[in-house]
Write a structure and sequence with these properties.
The chain is 42% helix and 15% strand. It contains one helix and three strands; from the N terminus they run E-E-E-H. The protein folds into two domains: 33 residues; 42 residues. By secondary structure, the chain is an alpha+beta fold. The chain has a three-stranded antiparallel beta sheet with strand order 1-2-3, with no helix packed on it.
């Protein structure tokens, strides 16, 4: 497909760049125009940082509690599996023993 078969169009509404096939009218490529960030006041930026700091601290605390509880749960699982081990059975043959 040559450049003569394509048409570059800019949307007047959103400013997106479109690459359109001249024969079929199909959009071949669509590139949205990036939105410009509105300038924020210093107070708004400080508030956002404070919110992020608070959320991070809460997430850290949740994970810390989960790790503390995880050790207890793993210990219970090990104890329960040790109760269910067949102590009278022969141990399985290891590949090292076959050499």
């Amino acid at each position: 497909m040559s450049d003569d078969d394509r048409l570059n169009v800019t949307c007047s509404s959103c400013g997106a760049a479109l690459l359109v096939d001249r024969q079929s009218g199909q959009v071949i490529w669509h590139e949205a125009k990036g939105k410009k960030a509105e300038p924020k006041s210093m107070k708004e930026m400080v508030n956002e940082l404070e919110t992020q700091r608070r959320e991070t601290a809460e997430k850290f605390e949740r994970e810390r509690r989960a790790l503390k509880d995880r050790g207890r749960i793993l210990e219970q699982k090990v104890k329960e599996s040790m109760k269910r081990v067949d102590k009278t059975g022969k141990p399985p043959i290891r590949p090292v023993d076959l050499d």
